[in-house]
Write a structure and sequence with these properties.
The protein is an alpha+beta fold and about 400 residues long. About 30% of the residues lie in helices and about 25% in strands. An 8-stranded antiparallel beta sheet has the order 10-9-6-7-8-11-16-13, with helices on both faces. The protein has a 5-stranded parallel beta sheet with strand order 3-2-1-4-5, with helices on both faces. A 3-stranded antiparallel beta sheet has the order 12-15-14, with no helix packed on it. Helix 3 (about 75-80) packs antiparallel against helix 4 (about 90-100). The chain starts with a strand and ends with a helix.
Length: about 400
């Protein structure tokens, strides 16, 4: 298949590399001049997406155009109307993410004073094919502060914990309610709702109508379907199901200066050597997702404007194991001035996940469901036995 990626900063670099590694033809358009060095020597580039459309059109139906940003929804809608397979968003999705007053009456959008809500911040997300969500949904817990223990300035992201398990309860009460609205507006792509949950309920914060990063990389380890098939399934209504593995995945963002700032703000050197030890085998390498990385000769080097080098991921049956596996891989990557958090998932392990469970946000656990099923079977048996005894008594009389 042929895939054309269009974006400002090449935020989906890891996705393009995955597609190329699986034998697909990939071209990438990077609008931001400071970011155009990303993926040099790794993926073919195109300077103008309009000219690249002729290349993508040659593939017939085996083609997908991927948009990264939430500023070109109208363009995506027009390309779909012309018969192109396009995934990433829509004009409707752009407005929902960018215009925070979209769903409010005009007379009410003068001043907003929001109540402070204490609880656990978590998100629920799913892929939409223009007609319906491709289940199951995922749950995610983002870590945005720069330093461990959630200290320091907010960043784009320092790490994420995700799972596909026990998401139905939250999905049905939040994101799932948007399905008719998204269907009417023919949205195609990933949708995420960030919330605060506590003992009083679920409190929506913001919607994201594009691929989240590093979220899409962290989900990769749990998704048992190639990205090529999943992207194609999002382009038009289909019967594709999303097979997913059990457990959790943790992703740790490996950064270098100028992160968490931009190169234009503080200045920084790109072209730093990136060393992946030879004893990291291919399965382990697949858990390293490159972002602002390029190839110089035979060597990997840093590139781009933000210092977002790569994401190391790890999977486990519980959050602690996923965290341990992600950190173990991150420690083996060598880049000058590398910085990352080693406590991704720590607050969940130390109590937040138990709180979310206690508040009922995850529905019933497997163990509780089994106990409830046994209880229901016992009640039903008792009821039937009672009916039988009553009939026996009646017949005796």
């Amino acid at each position: 298949m042929r895939f054309l990626g269009v974006g400002d900063n090449c935020d989906l670099a890891a996705l393009y590399l995955d597609l190329a590694a699986h034998g697909h033809d990939v071209k990438v358009v990077i609008r931001n001049p400071v970011c155009r060095g990303i993926l040099d020597g790794l993926v073919e580039k195109a300077s103008d997406w309009r000219k690249a459309l002729a290349w993508i059109a040659e593939a017939g139906d085996a083609r997908v155009v991927i948009f990264e940003d939430v500023r070109h929804g109208h363009l995506q809608d027009r390309l779909r109307a012309k018969g192109f397979n396009v995934v990433g968003g829509s004009a409707f999705g752009d407005r929902l993410e960018n215009d925070r007053s979209f769903a409010r009456p005009e007379e009410a959008e003068v001043f907003l004073l929001m109540e402070r809500i204490d609880g656990v911040e978590m998100g629920v997300g799913a892929y939409f094919d223009g007609e319906k969500f491709l289940g199951p949904a995922c749950l995610d817990w983002e870590h945005k502060r720069f330093f461990p223990s959630d200290l320091g300035e907010p960043t784009g992201e320092m790490g994420t914990v995700v799972t596909y398990e026990r998401s139905q309860y939250l999905f049905d009460r939040t994101l799932g309610l948007l399905e008719p609205l998204l269907r009417r507006n023919r949205h195609h792509g990933y949708v995420n709702l960030n919330t605060i949950v506590n003992g009083r309920g679920i409190w929506p914060l913001e919607l994201t109508y594009r691929f989240g990063y590093p979220g899409f990389s962290v989900l990769t380890l749990l998704q048992q379907i190639p990205w090529s098939e999943l992207l194609t399934a999002m382009c038009r209504p289909s019967n594709v199901k999303l097979p997913c593995g059990c457990g959790f995945c943790a992703g740790v963002v490996l950064t270098v200066p100028p992160f968490p700032y931009e190169k234009s703000q503080v200045g920084a050197i790109t072209g730093l050597p990136v060393l992946i030890p030879d004893d990291i085998d291919e399965p382990e390498r697949s858990r390293l997702h490159y972002y602002e990385i390029a190839k110089s000769g035979t060597d990997l080097v840093t590139a781009g404007a933000y210092g977002w080098a790569m994401v190391a991921t790890g999977r486990g049956s519980d959050i602690a194991t996923a965290q341990k596996n992600a950190n173990a891989l991150a420690r083996r990557v060598l880049i000058p001035n590398i910085r990352y958090r080693r406590d991704i998932g720590e607050r969940l392990i130390n109590g937040d996940f138990a709180l979310v469970e206690a508040w009922g946000v995850l529905g019933l656990s497997r163990g509780v469901r089994r106990l409830q099923a046994r209880k229901n079977e016992k009640v039903e048996f008792t009821r039937r036995a009672g009916v039988s005894r009553a009939r026996e008594k009646q017949w005796t009389l």
